[in-house]
Design a protein that fits this description.
29% helix; elongated; 14 strands; alpha/beta; five-stranded mixed sheet
């Protein structure tokens, strides 16, 4: 496609130096990251994100490798957004409807900007010296390039390193982003589950063991709203004589009833949980989805 000459990453590798920058054409480490421009020509100043690391993700829905990269980028977002890292996507799509449909289909939660121009005409491609996409930049808390790469694995590694060194956010902003917490922590949560969980009758009778994952939402005020639950593990302990004598149809009925009882009990106990300490994002309480694994195991 002539209008899309920007080469998408196609697994071509060459020897790389030990520097954070992968390719000579990209901006040097230590360079102040240029501002971004949207489809209206408005400038998005990265100075507004000072004090936080920023991941810039240059991509397009038409790139052949996007189905490989996007799930990995969403995993990084899920891990580091609540740790204070700002994610900004820069798309090189030229049709707004196509872009909007893709963002909705993939449930993209980070800010996405697009100039709606051919890539060679965009300010961002020129300012960031892009040769291929997807390409990622990691910007530090002072607005300078830490990493310029086409490898999402290298981005993941650098984020982990900076997290370990407490470099994702400036000290003055620490505490503005936090995951939800059960009051008293995990030990108190485990004690609560142990005190309230009752073993389902049919599961106990036929010695069924398993794990149920409960999905719930923690509201801005910390209240819990259970949204779903499913059995993710079920052991193979159906060797009791009273079970073996049953017909295949009855065996299946017992399994399904045992699973149903486990799910109902897990949901019941989850609904009894007291209010959590709500999550915070950029200093404000936010509504977040959460999961809780509950294991049913006979003593």
């Amino acid at each position: 496609m002539k209008s899309k000459i920007l080469t998408c990453f196609m697994f071509a590798f060459s020897a790389l130096s030990s520097m954070a920058q992968d390719f000579g054409g990209l901006l040097d480490v230590g360079t102040v990251a240029p501002d971004l421009v949207n489809e209206k020509g408005n400038v998005l100043s990265l100075e507004n994100n000072r004090g936080r690391c920023v991941v810039l993700y240059f991509w397009a829905s038409w790139c052949p490798n996007i189905e490989e990269y996007m799930p990995k980028m969403k995993e990084l977002f899920a891990t580091y957004d609540m740790k204070g890292v700002e994610f900004i996507g820069v798309s090189y799509d030229t049709d707004k409807e196509t872009l909007d449909k893709y963002l909705k289909k993939e449930s993209i939660q980070w800010k996405t900007i697009c100039e709606l121009k051919e890539w060679k005409e965009t300010n961002t491609a020129k300012d960031y010296r892009l040769n291929k996409i997807p390409t990622m930049y990691l910007i530090d808390t002072e607005g300078k390039v830490v990493l310029a790469t086409e490898s999402i694995g290298k981005l993941k590694g650098m984020l982990k390193k900076m997290q370990n060194n407490r470099q994702l956010v400036a000290p003055s902003l620490e505490g503005e982003d936090q995951l939800p917490q059960f009051v008293g922590g995990i030990p108190v949560l485990m004690k609560f589950l142990g005190a309230n969980l009752r073993y389902p009758s049919i599961a106990e009778r036929f010695r069924m063991e398993g794990k149920v994952v409960v999905d719930f939402v923690i509201e801005k005020d910390g209240k819990v709203n259970v949204t779903g639950a499913k059995v993710t593990e079920l052991n193979d302990v159906f060797h009791l004589p009273k079970y073996e004598r049953l017909s295949d149809e009855r065996k299946n009925q017992i399994i399904e009833e045992g699973k149903r009882q486990m799910i109902n009990e897990a949901r019941r106990v989850a609904c009894l949980m007291p209010d959590w300490i709500p999550a915070k994002r950029r200093g404000k309480e936010v509504r977040v989805s959460h999961t809780l694994p509950i294991t049913f195991k006979l003593q």
